Amino acid sequence: MKPTRLIIVAVGGQGNLLTSKVLGEASLLSHMPVRMSEIHGMAQRGGVVESALVFGDARSTIISDGEADLLVGFEPSETLRALNKCNTKTVVVTNLTPLPPFTVAIGNGVYPELQEIQRLIREKTARLIALDASALAKQAGNIMAVNMVLLGSLIQTSVLPIAVDHVKEAIRTITKKAFVDINLKAFDLGYAEAEKTNT
Question: Are the C-beta atoms of 22 and 172 separated by less than 8 Å?
Fold first, then answer.
């Protein structure tokens, strides 16, 4: 099977690593090979966490510039920062809720305009799904479910050959029992939102 390459970027504490684990489990349920690697910045201090997942026949988890088939960003400026991994066929899913870095908070930087971020991404890629994942997570019952909202949007693109049922089974298996129902609702909300933006 031809490899499909996914980059996930987030700020520490947003649930990026749980998303990777769910995708890994869902891949196994789908009998699809998957390789994963993670780069942890100063994650506990709000630094960047990046995951690379390669599905299908591949020997390496390294995703070079221009090689990503999919990019999922939990924070809009981090999505923009990872744009170099994309090409004209890449599908991008991004949360539109900013988490400005410390440098912006103390006046040593300027956060880019959300409209400009979206414009730059659309210029370089095939499709952008930009959504307020934080609002949808709250609607599901927990702001921490942003990762499941974005996972739902990602699966809706159908770029990854993973069945929805397998992802939901992985969510039930991997997430804590107290959060399973909320996470499944968040997944469904993200999936439905991506369907609306299917242009």
Answer: no
Q: Are 127 and 91 in contact (CB under 8 A)?
A: yes
What domains lie within the chain, and their CATH numbers? 4-99+111-196 (3.40.920.10)
Looking at residue 61, its amino acid is T
User: What pTM was computed for the model?
Assistant: 0.91
Taking only the tens place, the pLDDT of each residue in 80-96 is 999 999 999 999 999 99
The residue with tokens 């591949």 is 58
pLDDT tens per residue, range 169-190: 999 999 999 999 999 999 999 9
Non-local (6+) Cβ contacts of 59 within 8 A are none
- In this predicted structure, the answer to whether residue 17 has a pLDDT above a threshold of 90 is no
Phi, psi (degrees; rounded to nearest 5) at 160? -90, 125
Closest CA to 72 of 166, 190, 143, 151: 151
Q: Alpha-carbon distance 195 to 166, whole Å?
A: 19
φ/ψ of residue 82, rounded to 5: -90, 5
Token pair listed for 51:
């995951």
Query: Sign of torsion, CA 34 149 146 169?
Result: negative
- Cβ–Cβ contacts within 10 Å for residue 46, how many? 16
Q: How far apart are CA 75 and CA 73, in angstroms?
A: 5
